[in-house]
Amino acid sequence: MKKKKLILTSLIFGLLLMVISGCKKDVPLTPARNLVGTWKTSTPAKFTYKTDFCDFVNIMDVGTADWDVTWVIKENPNDENKVDITMTFTTSNFQPIATNCGFDNGYVPQVSPINNLEATISSSSIAILDLSSGSTYTFNGSFTNNNITGKWDSYYEGLYYSGEYTLPNGLILNKQ
Fold first, then answer.
1. pLDDT for the residue 25
2. Higher pLDDT residue, 158 or 118?
3. Which of 94, 141, 159, 170 could be 65's S-S partner, Cβ–Cβ 3.0 to 4.6 Å?
4. Residue 78 carries which DSSP code?
């Protein structure tokens, strides 16, 4: 009787081991798995322009504009948790915000394209923090297979501070 139990237990254990080891192994997913490609806004995103032109101390909103934005995302060859982004955009519908600066608000427009942005991917979040050539670009948001949503903020310093930002979840890009 003891021998039959041992044989039965061995058969069950062997069968279980065969089932487990015979399972197809999934190829591991990298965080950047579905981000490579072209992403575009389907409707323009509202960007607010900011500068410290009036007194070189206080940063003020000086205007808004609609931006049609495109991101081309490529794999980062050095880190599977990062992607490389080139951002292009066109602007329209500029609306100045009244200030006490006089005839000029001092805003210096951003130039398209913005090259060499590097984003860190974690789970379903995406974050850009790029400090290059006197400019700072940040984006904090999330993504799904079809959509990237978040807040953009950028600035650059020359003679004075100038930049632009969106509201939280104000930049929405859809996979093309």
1. 46
2. 118
3. 94
4. T
Q: Is residue 31 part of a domain?
A: no
Q: And the tokens for 6?
A: 């041992």
pLDDT digits (tens, 9 = 90+) for 84-116: 999 999 999 999 888 877 767 777 778 888 888
3-state secondary structure (DSSP) of residue 91: strand
Confidence of residue 26 (pLDDT cuts 50, 70, 90): very low
Q: Which residues contact 50 (CB under 8 A, 6 or more apart)?
A: 59, 60, 61, 62, 107, 155, 161, 162, 163, 164, 165
The count of domains in the chain is: 1
Enclosing domain of residue 148: 37-175
Q: Of 150, 144, 146, 143, which is closest to residue 175 (Cα–Cα)? A: 146
> Residues 157, 134: contact at Cβ < 8 Å?
yes
Residue 20 located in a structural domain: no
- Rounded to two decimals, the pTM is 0.78
What span, in angstroms and rounded, lies between the C-alpha atoms of 2 and 163? Answer: 80
The reply to whether 69 falls in a domain is yes
